[in-house]
Specification:
163 residues; alpha+beta; STM4215-like; six-stranded mixed beta sheet; 8 strands; 37% strand; elongated
């Protein structure tokens, strides 16, 4: 599996598990609909990449066992008209536990080439500047998969050396 395919696969999985209105770096827009608070997801830069088993001996290169450490942040914005005890914090925590369970126990459901997935997550509640509430999912997903030497060649030349 090409490591470049891991991120879109994880993104699609998260979108199937949590309502994500858009991807970006900002905070969600102001709350207009109390039933559907706006959300935004952030795909943080790759935190870690580790590989093992690479050997280019007589038989040619062996597959690399690669593990990517991909952090994600998903933020929901709730109206300041709600009291702290009215926020769906328990629902968010339950959702995180369900997502972690699927990732860790059924990695093949996310992608057939994922051998295993280590995952951790938590829910953070904060108050925005205008007193709206922010419920944030912080997830770190680390899939492990086999990659051939040819899988490790970037698909575009944007990062390749000149000349």
């Amino acid at each position: 599996m090409n490591p470049e395919l891991a991120r879109p696969t994880l993104r699609a999985f998260l979108e199937s598990q949590i309502r994500i209105d858009k991807w970006g770096l900002n905070f969600p827009d102001d709350v207009e609909d109390l039933e559907n608070p706006p959300s935004i997801a952030r795909e943080e830069p790759l935190a870690d990449l580790s590989s093992e088993n690479f050997f280019a001996g007589q038989g040619g290169p062996t597959p690399v066992t690669a593990t990517l450490r991909c952090p994600y942040t998903i933020i929901f914005r709730f109206s300041s008209s709600l009291q702290y005890h009215q926020l769906p914090i328990g629902e968010a925590e339950t959702n995180v536990l369900r997502i972690l369970s699927v990732l860790q126990n059924e990695p093949y459901c996310v992608h057939e080439h994922f051998e295993e997935i280590a995952a951790e997550g938590r829910v953070v509640v904060a108050e925005a500047e205008n007193r709206d509430w922010l419920i944030t999912y912080q997830l770190t997903i680390s899939p492990t998969f086999l990659a051939e030497l040819l899988d490790l060649i970037p698909s575009t030349g944007y990062m390749a050396p000149l000349g």
